[in-house]
Write a structure and sequence with these properties.
The complex is a heterodimer of chains A (332) and B (128).
Chain A: H1 4-23, E1 29-37, E2 40-48, H2 51-72, H3 80-86, E3 90-92, H4 95-110, H5 120-126, H6 138-144, E4 153-156, E5 159-162, H7 175-189, E6 195-199, E7 202-206, E8 214-219, E9 227-233, E10 236-242, E11 247-250, E12 253-256, E13 259-260, E14 265-266, E15 270-277, H8 280-293, H9 295-302, E16 309-314, E17 319-321, E18 329-331
Antiparallel strand pairs in A: 1-2, 2-6, 3-5, 4-5, 6-7, 7-10, 8-9, 9-18, 10-15, 11-12, 13-14, 15-16, 16-17
Chain B: H1 4-7, H2 10-32, E1 38-43, E2 46-52, E3 57-63, E4 66-73, E5 76-81, H3 88-91, E6 101-104, E7 109-114, E8 125-127
Antiparallel strand pairs in B: 1-2, 1-7, 3-4, 4-5, 6-7
Classes of the chains: A alpha+beta (332), B alpha+beta (128).
Chain lengths: 332, 128
């Protein structure tokens, strides 16, 4: 046999071995997919070793989110929320709607109405999401607040009961979080142990990133593109609400989308609130409640929720972290 | 004594040339693989624009409402004009770190910053 024949065969075997190692190294695959849902950009990131399984999980999670959005959004004529709002006394709702309302009512009660799901008429009046929002008259605001308040809505089994016919239900401060939570359940049912579901900045971090704990940057409320802090979490929700998300300015005054149920106007105590807790729905509701309550009362409320931490940026820009916040913060 | 070239058969040459071809193809593939941080834009379900983040430029992106203008400069990638009613995409500011996202929901435009390694990013996701 010529001397070079074993060399060539060796080279071929080496190449085959390298190719096999490359494709069967047990390397973690990362699947990342984004879609426009719930009026925002929703991103799902999952990691594992079977790309097909990961993609199927992501598709099913998005499908569940789309289904729940149709149930819980006031922008769909056939949603539970629209149907109940149009009924004079309320009506029967799906178990998922009842579940999110029950959580919302609990936060509403414990925050003494700072979180309020009855402000649909007020939000429509301000038209923050419309093309030409305007500051309403005090008379119009007072009228939009008639018959509303967290005590004007109750749940009896699957029946959502309104105390006032004109009450318009709005789950905007909690539904998105609930839908993210349900997407996470879908991922878990597919056997996913590492991933993230991020709906416009409200997110759940499942397990940890393939290389390290999830690192979450928190938007600075006044520096465009700036980072206020970075936290490291696993199996936690991170939710931020700020006055910079949706707003308009009139006569030098900023009018944003988080309303104080007492005044019927945008809450003025904070620039932003970030909450780390066990579910995105709870984080969503708490972030709104804390924003309305302001730093002092907000942190008092947060202390009633074990396992929850928060960082409040007050209207004057001062930072108000909860007691255990530092355990999560990694930078700056 | 014969040289290696003198003892090689036609089959040996075929194998050597095949290996050479595979090597060249591999090198070419590596050369075209993304090296730096990229701006990836999708409109609807289609990727409609990809560019390096360090190459300043502006581009008009077509959506159902009209053209959304995306500018890439030293601050990152940001939307400077849009036909959407509330201009939230403009107020989102620049995206510059791997994983950052921008979106114009009414005009169905999504912008994502991608890095092959993800190493440039100080965080994995942004809470805003």
């Amino acid at each position: 046999m010529p001397w070079n024949r074993p060399l060539i065969i060796g080279m071929i075997l080496l190449l085959l071995a390298l190719g096999w190692l490359r494709t069967n190294s047990g390397e973690t695959e990362l699947v990342r997919s984004s879609r426009l849902l719930m009026g925002t950009i929703v991103e799902i990131v999952v990691s594992g070793q079977n790309t097909g399984q990961l993609e199927a999980a992501v598709d099913d999670a998005f499908a569940e989110m789309a289904r729940l959005d149709r149930l819980l959004s006031r922008h769909y004529q056939d949603s539970d929320v629209t149907r109940v709002s149009q009924g004079s006394k309320g009506g029967k709702v799906a178990p998922e709607t009842a579940e999110v309302v029950a959580l919302g009512l609990d936060v509403a009660r414990r925050s003494n109405g700072a979180f309020d799901m009855t402000l649909g008429r007020l939000k429509t009046l301000w038209g923050i999401d419309q093309e030409n929002p305007v500051v309403p008259t005090q008379e119009a605001i007072a009228e939009a607040l008639e018959g509303v308040g967290f005590r004007a809505l109750s749940l009896e089994g699957l029946n959502l009961v309104k105390q006032s016919p004109q009450l318009m239900v709005d789950l905007g401060g909690i539904a998105k979080g609930y839908i993210v939570d349900r997407a996470v359940v879908v991922l878990k049912n597919h056997g996913i142990t590492s991933g993230a579901v991020n709906a416009g900045g409200d997110m759940y971090l499942l397990g940890q990133h393939p290389e390290h704990p999830w690192r979450i940057g928190i938007q600075h409320p006044r520096e465009q593109g700036g980072i206020l802090a970075t936290v490291q979490v696993r199996d936690k929700a991170v939710v931020t609400s700020g006055d910079y998300e949706r707003f308009f300015e009139q006569d030098g005054q900023r009018y944003h989308h988080i309303f104080d149920p007492e005044t019927g106007s945008p809450a003025r105590g904070c620039q932003s609130v970030t909450v780390i807790t066990d579910s995105v729905a709870l984080g969503d509701a708490l972030a709104t409640a804390l924003f309305v309550l302001g730093p002092q009362k907000g942190l008092e409320l947060l202390a009633d929720y074990p396992g929850s931490e928060g960082l409040i940026v007050a209207a004057d820009g001062t930072l108000h972290p909860s007691q255990g916040w530092a355990d999560y913060q990694s930078a700056p | 004594m014969k040289t290696p070239f003198q003892v090689m058969t036609g089959g040996d040459w075929l194998i050597v040339l095949t290996l050479l071809g595979v090597s060249v193809a591999g090198i070419a593939w590596l050369a075209t693989a993304p090296k730096g941080t990229r701006v990836v834009v999708t409109s609807g379900d289609q990727t409609c624009f990809v560019a390096d983040l360090d190459q300043p430029q502006s581009v008009d992106l077509d959506g159902p409402l009209g053209k959304t203008r995306l500018v890439i400069d030293e601050t990152g990638a940001h939307v400077t004009s849009s036909p959407c009613p509330r201009k939230i995409c403009i107020s989102m500011g620049p995206a510059r770190h791997s994983g950052d996202l921008l979106a114009c929901v009414p005009n169905r435009i999504m912008v994502r910053i991608e890095s092959p390694s993800g190493e440039d990013a100080p965080y994995d996701l942004l809470s805003r």
